[in-house]
Design a protein that fits this description.
457 residues, alpha+beta, 7-stranded mixed β-sheet, 14 strands, 42% helix, 20% strand, globular, PDDEXK_4, PD-(D/E)XK nuclease family protein
Length: 457
């Protein structure tokens, strides 16, 4: 396991010390009026602690405590999970489609979270539950991470739970849910599959709609506040102007590859950053933010407007007639390293007609089939419609793909990504030096070409 060298630790510490000075000076200069915090999750400092997220999700899925909405939330989340990873399990599908089911602790246990693994004093599973529908049983095991590295003994968790569910009517599914902004380059760790945080966000949004429909005011309030933690509003202004080099030295691809980087970073933040609001501000920073700012600056010079989102930049399409057709830019990490990425996406929102959803989905497929950078993809995958997520490299290979479930309800959801590998040196030149290495010029050219096609009525 790669560890941070003393040189990198010192570099991180020096950068955080300098960032603290800048933030402190800004605080003195701007002297903003204090605001009363009203989000209970921030008051309790839940947002960056996996165990506290786990406690709330434990509540949401406990039918004895969340009496009216536990089954509702579970059904929504199961559907999002199944769509996200292409999970085809007849019992799960039947639950999604409306069959009666029960939620209970896994076999032999009396609680849902912090479950001790037999024979070990230290090993504890974050969250596990059992679903029963008819004579079929499905155990779901969750590990929660917040921008962290997976260091748990997942094999021990797997063996412990599987031993409880022998027989043809039982099965176990294992998940790692990233609650922060980290994008994991792998699909799984052993039997544990990574889940996109958007699965949870969408499930809670749908549950919130149900709480509003039932006029459950208190429930509505805490669901809204939790959503604000998971998916906060992103500042339209770039708050890090002037600190780009310091941010790079604080966190970059070389640092993120080290297994202990987040632990060291957290310790140094607690030590070096003076004001709690600045600690919270740093927690919102993501390593893709520097690339996003450079993309915004470059495209704005060409008359193209963008919207800043968490981790990615949405290129506005003023002439597009499709409300949930997206062209976005972001920095991602494949197994081969960092990539400058472009997403073409269609989201089948429940508020739009199926005809519009189908049309915007077809637009994504049309762009992919007619853009030279995707040449070869249709030969690798003869029917793109069979997949709801594809990562395609400009080097002509598939880096990731997720097959669409046969019984998927939102059949017009899709994300097809074009990934252009970038070296750490070129990435630094782009983000810190405002340089234009050939890889960035090619990337911007791709964005411009796709913008012209995507923005047509």
């Amino acid at each position: 396991m790669a560890k941070l060298t003393k040189k990198l630790k010192d570099q991180m510490a020096e950068s955080l010390e300098a960032i603290n000075e800048v933030l402190q000076q800004r605080r003195k200069t701007e002297n903003p009026l204090p605001e009363q915090e009203t989000n209970i999750f921030r008051i309790l400092k839940l947002e960056n602690h996996e165990i506290r997220h786990g406690a709330f999700l434990d509540f949401l899925l406990d039918p004895e405590r969340n009496v009216h909405l536990a089954l509702v939330f579970a059904r929504y989340w199961l559907e999002c999970i199944a769509d996200d990873i292409g999970l085809d399990d007849t019992a799960i599908t039947d639950i999604i489609n409306g069959d009666d089911f029960k939620i209970c602790p896994i076999e032999g246990e009396h609680k849902y979270s912090e479950i001790q693994v037999k024979g070990s004093r230290k090993l504890r599973i974050d969250h596990a539950l059992e679903l029963r529908t008819g004579n079929r049983r499905r155990a779901l095991v969750f590990e929660y991470k917040h921008n962290g590295v997976v260091q748990n003994d997942l094999e021990a968790y797997q063996s412990f739970v599987r031993s409880k569910y022998p027989g043809k009517y039982s099965d176990v599914h294992f998940f790692i849910l990233e609650l922060g902004d980290k994008v994991h380059s792998k699909d799984r760790e052993g039997a544990f599959e990574y889940l996109n945080k958007n699965t949870l966000i969408t499930a809670i949004e749908n549950t919130l709609d149900e709480a509003r429909r039932r006029d459950m005011q208190a429930t509505r309030l805490y669901l809204e506040q939790y959503l604000d933690i998971l998916n906060p509003e992103v500042e339209s202004d770039f708050v890090w102007n002037g600190m780009e080099t310091l941010l790079w030295d604080m966190w970059n691809p070389q640092i993120s590859e080290c297994d202990d980087s987040l632990e060291v970073w957290s310790e140094l933040v607690d030590e070096m950053i003076s004001h709690p609001d600045d600690v919270e501000l740093l927690d919102t920073y993501h390593e893709s933010d520097l690339l996003g700012q450079r993309v915004i600056q470059t495209l704005s010079q060409k008359g193209i407007s963008c919207r800043r989102n968490s981790q990615w930049i949405r290129i506005k399409l003023p002439d597009s007639q499709y409300p949930h057709f997206y062209l976005t830019a972001w920095l991602c990490f494949s197994n081969d390293g960092p990539c400058l990425a472009i997403n073409l996406a269609s989201w089948q929102d429940k508020k739009i007609s199926e005809e519009i959803a189908q049309a915007q989905y077809q637009k994504v497929l049309h762009l992919v089939k007619n853009d030279g950078n995707f040449a070869g993809l249709t030969e690798e995958l003869s029917d793109l419609g069979d997949y709801n997520r594809i990562w395609w490299s400009t080097e002509g290979k598939i880096l990731n793909k997720v097959k669409r479930r046969t019984s998927v309800r939102r059949q017009y959801d899709t994300v097809i990504s074009l990934l252009r590998p970038v070296s750490p040196d070129d990435l630094k030149a782009i983000c810190i030096d405002n340089g234009n290495p050939p890889v960035f010029e090619a990337y911007i050219s791709n964005l411009m070409d796709l913008f012209v096609q995507a923005n047509q009525k």
